[in-house]
Amino acid sequence: TISGTTINLWLLVHGIAxxxxxxxxxxxxxxxxxxxxxxAREPEFNNFAPDRLKLLKLKNPINDNQISNIQNxxxxxxxxxxxxxxxxxxxxxxVTYWSENQAPPENLIHIIVEVLDIIGDASK
Length: 124
Fold this sequence. Notes:
- There is one protein chain.
- The model has no long low-confidence stretch (mean pLDDT 85).
- By secondary structure, this protein is an alpha+beta fold.
- It has helices at residues 30-40, 67-71, 94-97, and strands at residues 6-13, 18-25, 53-62, 85-87, 109-115.
- A hairpin with a 4-residue loop joins strand 1 (6-13) and strand 2.
- It has a single domain, classed as Ubiquitin-like (UB roll) (Roll), CATH 3.10.20.90.
- A 5-stranded mixed sheet has the order 2-1-5-3-4.
């Protein structure tokens, strides 16, 4: 269920360069965003729980011509919050990352989605 003002976000699935759009409410938690992402990526994302998704907010959203700049990054690049990404935490609300008066730039990728395996490493 969408909670609060809606927001449209573009996401990139790391490793396969799939780009897709999600609409969610600013008062929804990141854990709810993960459920929406999992549903949007059926049947590809059918075989794991939503908590296996790791979401990384790009501080500087990119266009689809810049995907190659981030496709070669590995999970180790995100152990700490570098200048280019924030780890999105499950209990935080969307509004934590995009306030009510801040609209994400249109037609740019805002979030990188990584699928973690059972031991927590990014799948290759």
